[in-house]
Design brief:
The complex is a heterodimer of chains A (184) and B (665).
Chain A (H helix, E strand, L loop, with lengths): L1 H23 L20 E3 L5 H4 L2 E3 L9 E6 L4 H17 L4 E6 L6 H11 L4 E4 L4 H5 L7 E5 L5 E6 L4 H12 L4
Parallel strand pairs in A: 3-4, 4-5
Antiparallel strand pairs in A: 1-2, 3-6, 6-7
Helix pairs in contact in A: 3-6
Chain B lengths: L2 H30 L2 H30 L6 H6 L6 H6 L5 H22 L6 H22 L18 H4 L3 H15 L1 H12 L6 H31 L10 H26 L3 H24 L14 H21 L1 H4 L11 H33 L7 H21 L11 H23 L5 H31 L4 H11 L1 H25 L2 E8 L3 E4 L2 E13 L2 E12 L2 E6 L2 E5 L5 E4 L1 E3 L4 E7 L9 E10 L2 H18 L4 H17 L1
Antiparallel strand pairs in B: 1-10, 2-3, 3-4, 4-5, 4-6, 6-7, 8-9, 9-10
The chains are: A alpha/beta (184), B alpha+beta (665).
């Protein structure tokens, strides 16, 4: 009987210990950090919308910029309401900081809707390069939860910060300062 | 100074004193076998119930009169809420929920103290009830106090959690859940009494059979209404996401379901004594564990309702309850061990036992998946999440096994090996399975689990038909009565058996609904300009207009979408988002076209602004989903029918005697 009581006591203690740990550890993070944080982000080469062909050619090869300059990669879709909200802020931030940081827009999870994508770009007159991730494979590689999401990449090609949800001009400015080392 | 607050505190403390007396007086009386003490402790149940009723009444008055000097009202209520919202705000947050729990428990305890037969188990069972009651009164009376006074008195409060006030289902679901949890306390109390008094026979089970079924029935109904609420409110078009909050309500249901089957084996065959005690202890402690996990924020959940100061308290109570009851079981082990073995593995009891193993395996898998992230973090510090794919893969094969056994079990004879009739029955069931399987295949179904589900539904339907004809045909031969009359009389005389057939039929209906809605669901995100249309699954969605409505306490913005098919407008849906006064959160409010063959479910995926000339919709088509709710209703009716008092009691006693004789020979 003693042996059985010992078993019960140890099982109880083990369960209690586990849950006590859970309590003491504080509340868990509800925002899951990007697994790529502080690690190099994947390079990609994707077709560009026509209006950017003059500057970059028909495709944009991000690999040739990664590790050279800081970058902001913004994922959006034509059906995504918050993407319409953030687009003017992105455009304004590009106008102010486009010389220091490479801005790239990626239309994703939006298969076959290039016309809608063109309308989106025209509506906000987006000056920074926008590429088409037609089969959404890039969104999987970057581990997107939804759109919009914005990745802030350091000059050495590692991920500094990921923002889920619409960005604001203030947030973009703050992140650009962090990426470029302070001087606006 | 708040007078209602003072009154509520007083009645709550009174309830605590009464339940403490029920615990201490009851225990001392039971040890000394002191009649007067036992009677006095029994009275404590009614006294606690009265005091808790008064406490809940005071809280309701405070809510309805917007008395913001009472802390719970100030933190969760709002003047502009409709009356029904104010009433159900009692269980919209932790402190009030505990009051509700304590009140319902005191009701069960009081009823038990009146109606329980006078057996040697009764004093101890009432004492265990008093112990649990003391905890559930003690927590709101001391730790999570709803009646604190607030000064200066605010003029307005934030209102309840918007997810809760967005749908009337929230008035029902938590209430049912607590009725279920609390109902299962009664068999637990009797099981502990049986262990303490060393009478681990069949008595404790027979005394609580009806309570067990009541608790199980409410828990089942609670889980199904919870799924429906999730479908109507959360906006993703599903009803079950294997979220920790859902899992922990499912765990005690699994063990309770195993329990209501395995007690029949003990009733008939005097076997599985220890197993049944273990199951009811697990069921009760899992309800505590679930409350702890969801109220403490220990496992992250998409809808964790309110962290409070009660995490450590619930953990402590869980550890004490689990350790004490398991320790008791270990202590009495030599008395509860089975002395007999299965006579034949292919028998009724054999199938019940196999089903039990499957239910327990599922309990283990779901529990493991739920606390695994905690496990990993404790061991390695890494954060992981266990998602739906794990739970689906782990539980689907088990469900298939359970459906298989559900068909065959009721047709197997007790004790002896199956005879010739079984072979004939099996042929019919196999035929039913093949017909359903082939028909589903011809219908275009190709995936393995949906096909298997349909095959097993055919298997079970044949089994139900055989069960019914098995009782009707012989009776038709001996009398001149018609089929309907014979059936009616059988159903009347065998309420429990007939009720169980109805429940099993309800389970089949639900299985079909779950199969269709999970395997063949279509989920799309569609952007439509206001005034234009987009196709979806054979319909034309025409976004006719957008709207914005303001009522006191609520702003809604959404779209008016006509569903057109073959040039005809079938229906108009108005998906919208609600923002409640006092709350920042936007609550999606989907609009659903319910149909027997499929639902069309529209939800606005982003807010509809005033300048916006388009709407983004999440459109979901869920085949057969309505049958989940209908199946749940059938199961509830079957459970209720099995509970109707009647000649059942006499029959059960006769069966019991027969079982007794059988085990002695």
């Amino acid at each position: 009987m003693i042996r059985r009581l010992v078993i019960v006591a140890s099982v109880t203690a083990a369960l209690g210990g586990l849950f006590l740990f859970g309590l003491l550890r504080g509340s868990p993070d509800r925002d899951i950090e990007s697994a790529r944080l502080n690690r190099p982000v994947p390079a990609f080469e994707l077709p560009l919308y026509e209006r950017y062909h003059a500057s970059f050619g028909p495709t944009l090869d991000v690999g040739s910029y990664l590790g050279e300059v800081p970058m902001i990669v913004n994922f959006w879709a034509s059906w995504c309401g918050p993407c319409y909200e953030e687009a003017p802020d992105l455009q304004a931030a590009w106008e102010d900081f486009g010389g220091q940081v490479l801005f790239v827009g990626v239309q994703t999870q939006d298969r076959g809707r290039q016309q809608e994508g063109r309308d989106f770009i025209d509506q906000f007159n987006l000056g920074f390069a926008n590429v088409i991730d037609d089969d959404s494979s890039l969104s999987i590689e970057y581990g997107l939860f939804g759109v919009p999401e914005t990745f802030f990449i350091r000059a050495d090609g590692t991920l500094a910060y990921k923002h889920a949800g619409p960005v604001t001009y203030e947030l973009l400015e703050e992140q650009v300062l962090a990426l470029t080392g302070g001087t606006p | 100074m708040s007078s209602l607050g003072t009154l509520g505190n007083t009645t709550l403390l009174l309830a605590l004193a009464f339940s403490l007396w029920g615990l201490i007086g009851g225990a001392v009386g039971a040890i000394r076998r002191d009649r007067r003490l036992i009677t006095s402790a029994r009275m404590a149940a009614s006294a606690t119930f009265l005091a808790m009723t008064a406490t809940v009444a005071v809280m309701e008055i405070a809510l309805l009169t917007d008395d913001f000097s009472v802390s719970y009202v100030a933190e969760t209520s709002r003047t502009t809420s409709p009356i029904w919202v104010k009433i159900v705000t009692l269980w919209a947050a932790l402190e009030g929920s505990l009051l509700l729990w304590g009140w319902l428990l005191s009701g069960y305890w009081a009823v038990l103290s009146w109606v329980a037969p006078n057996t040697p188990l009764k004093p101890w069972a009432l004492t265990v009830m008093a112990g649990v009651q003391t905890f559930f009164v003690g927590v709101p009376a001391i730790a999570a106090r709803p009646f604190n006074s607030v000064f200066p008195v605010p003029l307005e409060g934030p209102g309840p959690n918007p997810l809760l006030q967005n749908h009337w289902m929230m008035a029902v679901h938590p209430f049912l859940m607590y009725l279920g949890f609390v109902g299962l306390t009664v068999p637990f109390a009797y099981a502990i009494a049986a262990l303490i008094t060393n009478r681990p026979g069949t008595e404790w089970m027979l005394n609580t059979r009806r309570w067990t079924l009541i608790g199980w029935g409410f828990l089942t109904a609670a889980i199904i209404t919870g799924g429906w609420w999730s479908y109507e409110v959360l906006g993703w078009g599903g009803y079950w996401a294997w979220d920790p909050v859902e899992n922990v309500s499912f765990l005690p249901w699994l063990t309770a379901t195993a329990f209501i089957h395995s007690i029949q084996v003990q009733e008939r065959r005097r076997m599985l004594k220890a197993w049944n005690l273990l199951l009811i202890i697990l069921t009760f402690t899992l309800t505590l564990l679930g409350t702890f996990l969801t109220r403490s924020g220990v496992v992250s959940s998409v809808h964790s309702f309110g962290d409070g100061p009660v995490g450590p308290i619930f953990l402590g109570f869980f550890i004490v309850a689990f350790g004490l009851s398991m320790g008791l079981l270990a202590w009495r082990w030599d008395h509860v061990r089975d002395r007999s073995d299965l006579d034949h593995p292919v028998s009724r009891e054999g199938s019940f036992l196999a089903g039990n193993v499957l239910f327990l395996a599922m309990t283990f898998a779901v529990l493991l998946g739920t606390i695994f992230p905690l496990f990993v973090e404790a061991a390695t510090g890494d954060k992981v999440t266990v998602g739906a794919p794990f739970f689906d893969q782990a539980t689907l094969p088990l469900w298939m096994g359970i459906l298989f056994l559900m068909g065959i079990g009721p047709l197997l004879p007790w004790r002896r090996a199956p005879d010739q009739t079984l072979r004939g029955n099996l042929l019919w069931m196999a035929l039913g399975a093949v017909v359903f399987g082939v028909a589903s295949f011809a219908f275009g179904m190709r995936a393995i689990y949906p096909l298997l589900t349909m095959t097993l539904v055919g298997w079970n339907l044949a089994s139900l038909v055989l069960l019914v004809t098995g009782v009707v045909v012989p009776r038709l031969k001996i009398g001149q009565r018609g089929v309907a009359q014979v059936l009616r009389q059988y159903a009347f005389e065998n309420k429990r058996r007939f009720g169980s057939m109805v429940v099993h039929f309800g389970v089949l209906v639900m299985a079909v609904g779950i199969m269709g809605s999970s395997a063949y669901r279509v989920d799309e995100q569609i952007r439509i300009d206001i005034g234009s249309s987009a196709p979806f699954q054979g319909y034309i969605l025409h976004a006719r207009d957008k709207f914005m409505e303001q009522t006191p306490g609520r702003i809604s913005a959404g779209a008016v979408v006509d569903l057109e098919r073959d040039g005809q407008i079938v229906t108009t849906l108005r998906p919208r988002t609600n923002v409640f006064a006092g709350q920042e959160m936007t609550v999606p409010t989907p609009s659903v076209m319910y149909r027997p063959n499929y639902d069309i479910y529209l939800n606005v995926a982003s807010t509809v602004g005033p300048e916006q000339d388009f709407v983004v919709l999440r459109a979901v088509m869920s085949p057969l989903i309505t049958w989940i709710w209908i199946g749940g209703l059938i199961a509830a009716l079957g459970t209720a029918y099995a509970l109707v008092p009647g000649v059942q009691g006499a029959r059960a006693t006769r069966d019991l005697k027969r079982g007794l004789e059988a085990s002695q020979t």
